[in-house]
Amino acid sequence: MYKIPFVVGNILSWFVYGSERRKRFRGKVNVLLFRPYIARFIKRTYGERMKTLRFVRQRTLNRFIAVANGKYYVKIFRNVTRQQICDFCELMDIVKTAVKVETPVCIVDRKIPMYVCEKNSGVSLYSFDTEYVLKNADKIGAQIRDIIIQLQSIDVDAIPNNERFITNIQNHRSAELPCQNCKRVLAHFDLNPSNLLVDNDLNILSVIDWDTVSIANNPNTDWRVFVKQWDIKPKPFTDTDYDFIGTGGDIKK
Fold this sequence. Notes:
single chain, alpha+beta, Phosphorylase Kinase, domain 1, Transferase(Phosphotransferase), domain 1, 3-stranded antiparallel β-sheet, 10 strands, 34% helix, 17% strand
């Protein structure tokens, strides 16, 4: 039943010219059709009447993101089961025990594959002047290194039913091939500037958007993702700035 809004939005969007306009139209249709679901969830969970619901993005046909009342992030998935969302939240409870920065507290809906989390502390890196960010690039990179080490301190073999997380809820697999004598580690898989929230001194307060968290075959995966997706130019990092391979989390620089 919850797939109907996605289907309606996808069909109607074909009559909209331009790929970007089509994406936004599809997302706004989903916001309109899912509004009653989200309003009930916000009321039941937080005791608030939903006053605003703003579309954020819908990158694919299979999920969309909105913000309710300016402070609750809502994600609804089309081809993910509610059990998979619950598994993801279980894994995030384990992540919180190791990662020292703030991570989202996800609350799962009882009927459909949807979760809501409150906004985390900090502001986007993109809200700062580019020169200021580049001047502090090494500081940011060192913090990312520490977060990766903390994440890799989790023993993946001790995660209940860990084979479920080798392929995560988006059917995303590590681009890294298994390396010789490397242990499998937990990875975020989407460490990029838009998922880092910082204070005025560019100290990382929160890491968000953990939907792709899963087991990686190569300890270098998260660092290479960060390097690849660092889009604040000029690019100050390289793949070899921090070498995780074979270290089990101890960094060679």
